[in-house]
Fold this sequence. Notes:
This protein is mainly alpha-helical. It has helices spanning 2-6, 15-23, 31-64, 69-72, 75-109, 118-121, 130-137, 140-173, 179-200, 202-220, 224-235, 238-259, 295-307, 316-325, 337-356; strands spanning 265-268, 273-278, 288-294, 312-314, 330-331.
Amino acid sequence: MAEDSDQEKTEEPTGxxxxxxxxxxxxxxxxELNTFAMMIISAALLLMQGGxxxxxxxxxxxxEFQLSRETIFDPASITLHFKQVMIDGLVLIAPxxxxxxxxxxxxxxxxxxxxxxxxxIAPKFEKMDPIKGIPRLFAMRGLVEMLKALLKILLVFxxxxxxxxxxxxxxxxxxxxxxxxxxxxxxxxxxxxxxxxSASLVVIAMIDVPYQLWDHNKxxxxxxxxxxxxxxxxxxxPEVKGRQxxxxxxxxxxxxxAEVPKADVVVTNPSHYAVALRYxxxxxxxxTLVAKGVDLIAAQIRNVAIGADVPLVAxxxxxxxxxxxxxxxxxIPQGLYLAVAQILAYVYQLKAAQKNDWSAPLPPGDIxxxxxxxxx
Length: 376
């Protein structure tokens, strides 16, 4: 176990590892991408809707600040008036807020997809320990976050200075414009500056997204031992699988041996191969191979056949041909019909002789096996 813990995590995470991490809420996320998306969309919306919102607010202020003497001195009327002003203001900016809510939902799931995990939102009290938190400040992740913050400050400052120099003359000229024109001109300058400042954050997002993907993949990397353990857990150990295969083979062999007493004949090599055949004379089907084996299994088939008085017929070429050409519980191929018919004819003659106490017929001589079925 000590050796396992010392192994380097050099292997890419498996699909199961990634799926388990996702269930725990461990997926790649970029706060910089979320911030950039929120700011750039809000800036674009303000440029598109800012004029309408500004005019609406201006009209609302003109209307709502003109109060009658009775309303001013009536607390109930003032309260109702204030509530109506709040409702009108919310209705005016509701489309903007609704779109920002949609962006706030879509931006995080654009990287890593949608996921909900109770384990991820459960409080982890060990992270609240200030003593344990000190090493995280000097870890690689803490250093990267500090560098990103410094880069963000420098970038925004540089863009802000450039915008100031570009718009200083327009800002100074606002004082000589008409009040309403000055307000909308100022809003336009503010919206454009906000858009350009937000757009500058794409540089931070382009750095942070690849880093977060790399860091997430690095955290989930595995050692060779972890991959082996996971494979054993999911597929089962080789010992267990081997034992299961042996049990399956034993069960199949037992079922096969149970069919031997029902066979009409067992064709042998005579010692290395044994093939049991069954033929139903009342059906139109061909003879069926019900059992086959070599060496020890062939010997078991012969012993079971002898115990059940199933005739044994030695025909090495045919035994090998049947063994290699036909699977268990399958009909023999058409090319071997004639050869098997000679064997079955001999078996029926033998049974008739035994029943009537006749002299036993001679075993069939050379049985013609087609060349395409011959095996050495």
